[in-house]
């Protein structure tokens, strides 16, 4: 693989990236069975040369060797950074040293990261947005602002004359094959799906926004920052992103109805009884579909899919050794791959001695950016009729919140603090 | 002691608080979906939108101004961990 030179994608446009076939784990969270690539590209125009993204610092040598095969450093007028994560900017400081005349083009949100990566006092750069372009002479780079795919800074760059989209991490995957092009490399379908599921899925709404910009483009090739270059049927990958970003489950209940999921786990049936009461209370409100799930009877993956589509979530856990139980934490820690911001959340559960689980779950839900407006219900061992009534009320209040029928509440700060003390 | 009324729009809740309270204290107690990072005004995580009543909030400090600018915030944005309520009515988008 070390002998692979710069590879032409089209006349005057080259892949000058690096191969990392030995990598097995990317950024702790992603596995890869055959490594990854850090794709960098070089575009030559009659009036200038652009480098689009760089590579991880450890692979800078390969990158510079390939770049030198297609351009001299003093020819480089333009450096475009579609995404500033270190695997794409590791070689940037050295590239800036070798081509000091080159102008940097970044998205507005990339400024913070750029300043953190390149500690120059007189760092110069140009902020670009959708509609902005750079003319290299017969080759025009247009910028598409596509934030949160998967960082706030991300953008795509469109080479108009050749119909090439330099897409950054979008449409990328961790798959290393020196044959580079999708029609020639091994089967990377799983890697493509896996990458989407872990990197892009939490930002589904932003994917849909980006697709609005990308779909109208007359694409001949997609050049992502990782994995195979998509030369054969590039549009099919755009279509796949559209499918993946659309709701995974058919919405049976209609847009006007809300979905409340009640998850519980119970050692002696007490938390289960409370869960049923939460459901009963919620079901008294029209326009809410309530579903009850025992975590002992299901894996996290289908629940994550359900949660992605739900409007409200309630979690019931006993307290064991001062903590909520592991299946609850397993499920809550699986939610990093979806967006749960602003969903409604609540907790309840039975306990023996201390009952910390409810507060801990509520804190976690807030940490996940859910709204947790209603204090959870705790019951010591077997819930009394009053406590079950509190659970019914919790369910009803959640349903009223979901349907927008909650009465506006006015409360004094001192009362909130008292509630918290009583709760602890 | 002067009071202020802070309404969390999405939550449908108004909290009456003593003047000088930081938004972070109120939003955490009431369960609003404002996320916090450093809690020291540096990371910008708790940036939130004031719907009305900005005149009833403390002035932006130099640090808050810098972080808001870096995050390209509009004039109606504040950092919940820095902004204090001074009195009157304030409505926030949370």
What does this entry look like structurally?
The complex is a heterodimer of chains A (424) and B (94). Chain A folds into two domains: 239 residues, Metallo-beta-lactamase, Chain A (4-Layer Sandwich), CATH 3.60.15.10; 166 residues, Flavodoxin domain (Rossmann fold), CATH 3.40.50. Helix content of chain A is 32%, strand content 22%. In chain A, the strands form five sheets. Chain A has a seven-stranded mixed beta sheet with strand order 1-2-7-8-9-10-11, covered by helices on one side. Chain A has a five-stranded mixed beta sheet with strand order 12-13-14-15-16. A five-stranded parallel beta sheet of chain A has the order 18-17-19-20-21, sandwiched between helices. Chain B is built from two helices and five strands; from the N terminus they run ββαβαββ. In chain B, strand 1 and strand 2 form a beta hairpin. Chain B starts with a strand and ends with a strand. Chains A and B meet through helix 11, strand 22 and helix 13 of A and strand 2 and helix 1 of B. Strand 22 of chain A pairs parallel with strand 2 of chain B, so a sheet runs across the interface.
User: Largest contact between protein chains?
Assistant: A-B, 27 and 23 residues
The overall pLDDT average of chain A reads: 93
Strand portion of chain A, in percent? Answer: 15-25%
Q: Uncertain runs of chain A with pLDDT below 50, 5 residues or more?
A: none
- Given the helix and strand composition of chain B, which structural class is it? alpha+beta
Uncertain stretches of chain B: none
Q: How would you classify the quaternary structure? A: heterodimer
Do you know the CATH topology of chain B? Ubiquitin-like (UB roll)
Please give the order of strands in the largest beta sheet of chain B. 2-1-5-3-4
Name the CATH class of the largest domain in chain A: Alpha Beta
Helix percent of chain B reads 10-25%
Q: Could you state the order of secondary-structure elements of chain B as H and E?
A: EEHEHEE
User: Alpha-carbon distance between the termini of chain B?
Assistant: 26 Å
